[in-house]
Amino acid sequence: MTELTAPKSSITSSEFADELREQLKYTQGVTVEQATAADVYVAAATAVRRHLMDSWMTTQQDMINGNTKAVGYLSAEFLMGKQLRNALLNAGLTEQFDEAVESLGFDVQDVVDAEYEPGLGNGGLGRLAACFIDSLASLGVPAFGYGIQYKYGIFRQEFDEDGKQVERPDYWLSNEDPWGHIDYGRSQRVNFGGEVVEENGKRVWKPAWAVRAVPVDYMVPGYASGRVNTLRLWQAKSYDEFDLLAFNKSEYMKAVEPQVKAENISKILYPEDSTEVGKELRLEQQYFFTCASIHDAIRVFYPGQDKPDLTTFPDKITFQLNDTHPVIGIPELMRVLIDEYGYDWDTAWTITNKTFNYTCHTLLPEALEVWSAKLIGKLLPRHLEIIKKINEQFMAELTGLTDDAEKIERMRIVTDGKEPAVRMAYLATYAGSHVNGVAELHSQLLKDVTLRDFSDLYDKKFTNVTNGVTPRRFIKLANPRLSNLITEGLGTDKWLEDLDMLEGLVPLAQDDEFVKKFAQVKMDNKIGFSNFAKRNFNIDVDPNTMYNTMIKRLHEYKRQSLKILELIADYADVKAGKLDIDKVTPRTVIFGAKAAPGYYLAKMTIQLINNVAKVVNNDPDIKGKLNVVFVPNYNIRVAQHLIPATELDEQISQAGKEASGTSNMKFALNGALTVGTLDGANVEIRARVGADNFFLFGMTVDEVEAMYANGYDPRKYYESDPRLKGAIDMVASGVFSNGDEDTYEPLVHDWLNKDWFMTLADFTAYHDVQSQIETLYGDQLEWNRKALLNVANSGYFSSDRSIEDYLERIWKTGPMA
């Protein structure tokens, strides 16, 4: 690992306070006496950006002038979280900020809370991208993150009186955004539609319309590296002028129609695509940011050159496709090389193949994007021609590799038939240099199942890079109490640069006094979350109960249903007198999840959880022993309060369905024990923290596949387990819907007749492991000893290690000199 120096700034608190006064005066136009906490936040953000500016500019110059290949991380999502605390940490200004803000008469937390969190991601995919660009900067690797600056991020979640999810617009740009620098002078033109014609023996694209991609740059400061990389997000603007004539005729919509059409592209993250119009907008988004990013990279690395030698392009930058959303960039680079720079097909193909690599984040076939060839032809006619030619080349290549006609047909990039479609994952797998999964199990299943035909013939392309999380945000910032204890135990804070150093805590797990200190940190964090929940959501959470947390996107395969059914079964046992309430471990089950607006069963599951909470939390028979909390609008801010407070983490997806997970890593690093299946990165977490420090249950991947093959009947499990039957019957009978037996009928029907992710089949095993959990929790010293061992053995799950794996296995580059 590169030798690094911990960040320190020589500026004093008094000097930083003077900078805040200056920024309040010259950027906000207010005195300290007139200023609000929001004013101080903007002033502080502006000040810390100035401190990072020299490093940012030096990094850019060194990247252009040096010989170190850069990384272009193409992602439709970047779930960054709030920036102020992270920037202060990496600039070495945390203490100065706290003291300066207090000296000006403001509450530090009020100033920090004034920052609005950008919701530019849906979950793990976007948060992983954010962790990765943090680690790239911290390791000193030259990099750009490329994506879209959505005007509205992932929706703001609320619950109505019936417990249903309600989606509200997340207008995160409604207030000042001091972090983003808009650079109109470096915009790019992105074309759409039209036709392709033959001119002088060449295929020429004649677009019908175009939008202007305007870059908004965000600094990505590294920790202890002195490097500041760039996150470049694109805004869509119109080239067409405002139609004053139409406006003066009171034809207001006609006057702004071009602007609206263009700006819709960067309006919202993941527009609903159940309609053709929605699908079209999604494809426009994907092409918009990949096209702009490719042209931008050429501009950056060949400044002022009209006819650069683009055969060197793969030596300048390597593009990582974060899932299938940016895959349209492959035919785009081919088009640029052939149509704009005059390279022949074979040369263009060699350049393209060396430039792109693909990360597949799913094992679910329906999540592998497939676009209608008709739609691509409508929006990007030249690209469809190129894709078809790539497919023809691929088919010809396959005939030389195998005589299995059925396999060749299965591997088509462009499907045959009346309505041909383009399989984007197949295009990425064939056209890129490498394909990686994001956990050992996931990568193996990609090879054995999802992309088996490809791995049979192109085995050397496939590799694994297990995900990771940045310890700067998810331990140092999120859990300062634990950070201080780790530093005390290790005698150094260098572990933030090398998370493997956490292994030094292993001997301390046998020191009862140190374990008790660890337990006190956890209790203080629980109290902290209780106060946070009350202050922000008016939710009461008792810190004297076990904090049992399940936070992740609401999806059937993640099986929030399994957790809520087990909870209902416990409630039923208490009500029936089968379970002595006085012997029940007091437990607060905390959910955080958003369901896609069109995902009917997922939204119904949210409604059920909320209404179970309403019944259980208000039942005097329970005596506060069992509580259910659903935190609305789960985001990075909530995570940074909840994860450090959690004692038991739920990772209960069906085996073989979760690619990796990163919340499981965050929880283990923050001292929670995990109850989970052998799915995703759970396998590696359990291997590293020790089987005795992980609560395992459920079927394996092989057992799941065998059950699929032999026919799965969920009713068999319903009939054979009285607790499960009783829980489902309570839902069906209206106990949690004011007596209305129809409210959850679709959910009950799915459980009993489909249950594709086998919630019912794993229910009994999940119940059985609860006795182990309760027994261990009764011995708090032993529980916390095992929790500390989770922390000590989770250093592998740093995103710094993930990036080092990418550098070695895929990107073949490293830090700048």
UniProtKB/TrEMBL annotation:
GO MF term (any one): pyridoxal phosphate binding
Q: Which GO terms describe its biological process?
A: glycogen catabolic process
Q: Which residues form a coiled coil?
A: none
Cofactor(s) required, per the database record: pyridoxal 5'-phosphate
The cross-references to InterPro entries, in alphabetical order and at most eight, read: Glycg_phsphrylas, Glyco_trans_35, Pyridoxal_P_attach_site
Q: Which UniProt keywords apply?
A: Carbohydrate metabolism, Glycosyltransferase, Pyridoxal phosphate, Transferase
Mind telling me which GO cellular component terms the entry cites? cytoplasm
- Enzyme class of the recorded protein, top EC level: transferase
Stated EC number for the protein is: 2.4.1.1
| Reactions catalysed | [(1->4)-alpha-D-glucosyl](n) + phosphate = [(1->4)-alpha-D-glucosyl](n-1) + alpha-D-glucose 1-phosphate
Q: Give the sites modified to N6-(pyridoxal phosphate)lysine.
A: K666
Specify the superkingdom.
Bacteria
Alphabetical list of CDD domains matching this protein: GT35_Glycogen_Phosphorylase
- Which family is this protein grouped under? Belongs to the glycogen phosphorylase family.
Query: PANTHER family in the record, alphabetically?
Result: GLYCOGEN PHOSPHORYLASE, GLYCOGEN PHOSPHORYLASE, LIVER FORM
Summary of the function given for this chain in its UniProt record: Allosteric enzyme that catalyzes the rate-limiting step in glycogen catabolism, the phosphorolytic cleavage of glycogen to produce glucose-1-phosphate, and plays a central role in maintaining cellular and organismal glucose homeostasis. Phosphorylase is an important allosteric enzyme in carbohydrate metabolism. Enzymes from different sources differ in their regulatory mechanisms and in their natural substrates. However, all known phosphorylases share catalytic and structural properties.
Q: What is this protein called?
A: Alpha-1,4 glucan phosphorylase
Which species does this protein come from?
Answer: Bifidobacterium magnum
